[in-house]
Fold this sequence. Notes:
The chain is of the alpha/beta class. 49% of the residues lie in helices and 17% in strands.
Amino acid sequence: MTTIMRPSSRNLVAVRRRSLVTGGMAAILASGVAPTIARAEAKKLVFAHINAVPESAAVAFDWQAQEVRKRSNGELDMQFFGSTLLSKELEIMNAVKSGNIAMGSPAGAAATIFPEMGAFLVPYLVQSYEQAYKMFNGAIGDKLDKQFQEKYKVKTMCFFDYGFRHFWTSKKAIAEPRDLRGAKIRVQQAKVFGDTINGLGGNAVPMAWGEVISAAKQGVIDGGDLPIVNMVALKIYEVSKYCSMTFHNYGPTLSCMNLGVWESLSDGHKKLLLDTSREAQGKIREATESVDNVAAAKKELEPKGMTVVEAKVEDFKKIAQQKIWPAYKTQFGALWDEIESVKA
Length: 344
């Protein structure tokens, strides 16, 4: 009688396992797809900004997001949302501070969220782009970054600006200080902006950006102030007739990241984000400066129906120094002295 040997259940399991491993690896190699367990999941970094492309900062940060994804080989999934995720500067920065999103910018509301930035907004204290860049890419910028990490739990990726602010108005140009008398000028909600307009002779009307266009159409305000680059991007020519180039406030702001998210990154990823942030900074500065002179502003705005006026800047500056500077010099003390000491 022939005896038939039956494999034990243990042997069958071993055979099946070997077959699965062999067959599975062959399938993986054939498909070119690594097993899920071996694939590192991309780290998602959401960047929110109040404005969309073609606003200058939006263009630069959208570019940065693409570069970060590319240069990190997909390890960092940076996603830029302009004017779609959160609609207000304060909402964006609260989301960054809480860690609900990784990155963001306070845009023009920097001094509202970071009061330390108010010193740079005092009218005519910052006198040139060269002076500003030396400050923010130097010791002053490093000191602010450290303060913001300790106090607000955010890491500064780069400082940037929208340039110097100029008046846009519907009824008349603001060529000299007396033209501001009685004019209702919209300002951002940081105190220094209101002090600037009131000190120069106008009537400041604090207002969030989302209300500005309808307020201008209804005559609630006579105008406001913006850098040239934003007058173009935000189509301010649709509600105003005059651009008066007064250069009265320099408008620095920053791009920042939740500190906990920043500290979770590898050294290589930190370097990549800082490098691309500095490159984005350069793109914004180029866009800002290229239109911030009378000839360029005329070329940009007059075909769209605005009249560009060269204001008497020195007259405005003298009033600012007399009426606005003393209180802020006392308030900011050592930082004021540091700003004045930086020469272009």
